[in-house]
Every structure is written in structure tokens, then in C-alpha cells.
Amino acid sequence: MKKTALLPVLILLIAGFSSSLTEKKKNLSRTVSRITQLYINRVSSLDSFLQTYPLYFYDSSFSIREKKYEELSFYFRQSAGFIIYFEPNLYYSKLTGPFQFHKNDKKGFYNGLPDAWLFQGPIGNEPDSMLSKYFTRQDTLNQREFINQAVFSYRKALHDSKYGDHLKSMNESVLFDALRIEIFRISTIDIANSDFIIEEAAIPGLNGSMDSWLLFAGELASELPDSQIELKKKMGNFICRD
After folding, report:
1. In angstroms, how far is CA 74 from the centroid of its own chain?
2. Counting beta carbons within 10 angstroms of the beta carbon of residue 8, is it exposed (0 to 12), middle (13 to 18) or buried (19 or more)?
């Protein structure tokens, strides 16, 4: 949360760096390519984590399941920025967004729950005492099936977003615009935890968003000209903060 206190500095960085481009006409194609690869790596990490996520339900303790849920929130937010920018409709209809019942092929109670309840429920994160007292074996089997299906749908939605194709055509101006919009979204929606709702997802999710934004902005900061040395120092100090 400490990093959020300096959000205005981050917004200033993008504005200052964008203006410096106008002055110097610096070619940032290599920097854009590095950021593109970093983002692809983050989506790949999310996909790998999603593959293993169902394994913890219910063959682990509540503390482990809770930790994995927090990690899921972190990895998801690390990877969400450019998907939101390029595919907002897919993001809010398939990955998160306001709760809406909808008909699907899930069994019983889960027939009307959207896949986003993997985050917004979150399904499977009940304390062990509640599971042993109120849940039958069939209940846990149904929940495990929901988690497996939701994970499958999430991975498919990531693939359907075609983020790789969007990134191939991304230039400096698109990158600046995406980062500008993302930092405003972080400073409003993420801080309010409006997408996830569940309190346990708030800090891990916010940290994931900030982690990726700072990583990409750091790549840009390394290209700042000498005339922006003070801003470059501020950004360097900011990234190194705990």
C-alpha cells in the first residue's frame, strides 16, 4: 500500500517521458519489445498457476488454500492490464465484472454461477471447520468440479483474448496510452477492490497490478534523457521501495 501514496509521481513519469519523446524522437521499439515479452511471460505464469490451482481443493489445509487464492489474485492482476486495454468486453464478460446469474452446464447450485466466482466467491475457500460440519462429500466434489471448469474457462478466455496479436502491433503511443489508463484504473478500481469484491483479494490483487506497472514503467524510465534525470531518480527510488 505504501507505493500507492506516490501514484501522482507515476502519472507524472508517463506524461514527462511522453513529452521527452516529442523532443528527442527517440526510437523505443526495442523497449516496447522488451515490455511485450515481459507481459507475455506474466500471462504464461498465470496460465501455469491456473493449471495447478485445482490440485489444492480439497487436498490441503485452509491456510494453504487461502494462500493459493491470494497468489491467484496476484498473478491475475499481474496479467490483466493489457487484456483490459485491448479486450475490455471479454475481460468484463469472461474474467470478472458484476455478478450475474447465467445458465450453464454446471450441476445443482453451481448451475447459475459465473466462472468469475473463482475470484468473487471464492469457491473452495471455506474454513476446514465449516467443511467438516456443513459440507457433504458430494458438496466438495461439486465445488471441485466448479473450480476445474472455471479454471478451464479462464484459460480459454486468456487464449481468446489474442493478447499476443495485439502486442505485435503495439507501438510507443499505444504503450503510453495503455500505461496511462492502467495507472488511473489502479488508483480507482483496484484500490477500491471493485472487480474482486472479496477482501482477501484486495491487497494481493493491488500488489499484482502495481508490480507489473512498475516493471513496465521501469523499462521506460531507463530510456529517459538527461533532461529528465531527476524524474528518473525518483522513479528508480520508487521502484526500489518495499
Report:
1. 6
2. exposed
